[in-house]
Amino acid sequence: MSQTWTLVVAGDPDQRTGGYIYDAHIVAALRERGLYIDVMGVAGRFPDADDEAAQALAATLATLPDDARVIIDGLAMGALPGVVAVHAKRLDITALLHHPLGDEQGLSDRDQQRFHRSELRGLAHVNRVIVTSCFTERRVKALAEHYALPFSAPITVVEPGVVRAPVSPAAPPNEPIRLLCVATLTPRKGQDVLVQALAGVERGHWRCDCFGGARDAVFTERVQTLIDEHQLGDWVTLHGECDGATLEDAYQHAHALVLPSWYEGYGMVVTEALAHGLPVITTTGGALRDTLPNGAGISVTPGDVEALTRALENFCHDEALRTELCAGAAAARGGLADWQAAGVAFSQALMQPPSTLTAGSQFAADWLSLRENVDVNSRSQALVGALANWLDAKLLSENQRRVEHSSLAESSQSSAFSQPITLADLGCGRGSNSQFLAPRLHHGQRWMLIDHDDALLNEAYSRTSQLSTGKSESLQVETHCVSLENIDHPALTHCDVVTASALIDLVSQEWIDALAAQCAKHRQALLITLSITGEWCFTNPQQQPLNDPDDRWISELFNAHQRRDKGLGEALGGDAHQALVSAMAHYNYRVSEAETPWCLTAGKSAQYPLMCSLIEGWASAATEQAPGAASRIAQWRDERLRKVAEGKMGIWVGHRDLLALPADEG
């Protein structure tokens, strides 16, 4: 039985650009290997996705059954990460990236960052990533580190193959050199630079044929204007898009390929030219430095008109140089892999298992790291002091009971406070809770770290094991990788303090009731910190709240999303804190509360990454809640990111801390 995959691309799958041609060749090669590939194009505008695009991608993915295997081309995946996130848990998704969306030429800094962040958010939800060059692999990893938006999906490089082609004949003596440029007319491809360079090359010794669709009307007009201004109409021709037979004929009559791109994720036309034995005159932009083998052509710095003019002039007038480069191209031709080999590599990449470190683990670790310093400044010191006092009284009482029941009173007194207190940290994450509490408690401590995520748990253990108490004593640390659904775990029944940070907005009323009953049964203290209240707003540079209808709309969508079942029942979101207060009061616990909001200041660079992450998280959740409004939400997100980047906005997020102590103790 053949394996079935669905390839989802933006727009018409039959477009004749490098990325779509790559997809078509890979699909054919996979089908030859017995895989059934269904290719589906989605309507709408990409990569600056509009509502039509969001709805089309959402509808396409919704038609696929659970566990269906899907390849989403990067143009669609990176443009709509919220839509991808909605289906990530039920579909086996592979992302195919040709080059990062934000690396397109001509983007403003704002749009470049927007596309980079959008694509990285999408990668956090896929099981594997396939890229078409080693350069793109390095670039994507560097972007993930730069933007602090990690993903854990394994990356596999599957370079394009070539179609075996006859060698193009060398230029006959005393005939013009025929230069061939194959690239869509867009700023990144640099045809304007090429025309300006050709204007400096003596005419009569060459002609240049440019093939490629006019994808950017303004840029196409600019190139034609340059041709007219330099009076190159008899030597440079823009042929537009053509079919395969016309292009093959152009290769057979060419003497060199010219690709003046500012940036390429691979540069398939370079290897296509080499497959015809043609030398290549190109740039070092992006992956081109790697794609063109040494000795098979000439490379110049992107955008350097003078350097490109010299390269073209030398090639057209130096027969010995042409002979040398043609020999280099012929040698490179022999080492080119075909599309069948690319298909083998691609099919193997599709079988790559997802990382054992889930995307959620890595994203959570990054999010927890971003917020840790702000949490430290927000948490209530007074409640920790009250907990320390309660522990003092508890340990003194226990020691007195030992003395009363022992004939060795003097010996027993000397062992006062020798038994460590035991703290169970629910949903410990990477150990931020122990980082804060351990040095502020002077008692000996035994920490029970509890989380369902093994990767985070390992990090928490490593960090907590290095801590000391307020009296510089080492901690005892153990870990329990279990679901938080079950709070009857022995680690919770044999502890003095149950604690958690930034957790209870994810749980249900039933879970809170069970936690309260558990604490009451064992007479345990409960310290729950940084519980969201569901209230947040943007602030001006004077830290005054801003009142915007769109912010309230996003807040409503986010709060609705927070109430989805996160694995612990129907979540209470911002209502969880008050529900816990009531539940503990029901058991006659003394409950103390403290307001612990985040106050992220406009223009404070150290807080900028956290503010960006908050905005992106709110937008992602809102998109999952209302996918039909994806473009409106994206506009909101981008406007807020811009104002935060400009130092015009800060963020206030409501949190509360809670300490509940048994009423008859301390």
Plain-language structure description:
The chain has 666 residues and is an alpha/beta fold. It folds into three domains: 4-161 and 344-355, 3-Layer(aba) Sandwich (Rossmann fold); 177-336, Glycogen Phosphorylase B (Rossmann fold); 361-535 and 564-599 and 654-662, Rossmann fold. The protein is built from 25 helices and 20 strands. The strands form three sheets. Strands 13, 14, 15, 16, 17, 18, 19 and 20 form an eight-stranded mixed beta sheet that branches. A six-stranded parallel beta sheet has the order 2-1-3-4-5-6. The chain is elongated. Residues 425-521 form the Methyltransferase domain. This is Glycosyltransferase. GO terms for molecular function: glycosyltransferase activity.
Topology of helices and strands:
Elements: E1 4-10, H1 18-32, E2 36-42, H2 51-62, E3 69-73, H3 74-77, H4 81-87, E4 92-97, H5 109-123, E5 128-131, H6 134-146, E6 155-157, E7 177-182, H7 191-198, E8 206-211, H8 217-229, E9 236-240, H9 244-252, E10 256-259, H10 268-275, E11 280-283, H11 288-291, E12 297-300, H12 305-317, H13 319-333, H14 339-350, H15 359-378, H16 381-404, H17 409-414, E13 421-426, H18 432-437, E14 445-451, H19 454-465, E15 476-481, H20 490-493, E16 497-501, H21 509-522, E17 525-539, H22 549-562, H23 576-586, E18 589-595, E19 598-600, H24 608-625, H25 630-645, E20 650-662
Parallel strand pairs: 1-2, 1-3, 3-4, 4-5, 5-6, 7-8, 7-10, 8-9, 10-11, 11-12, 13-14, 13-16, 14-15, 16-17
Antiparallel strand pairs: 17-20, 18-20, 19-20
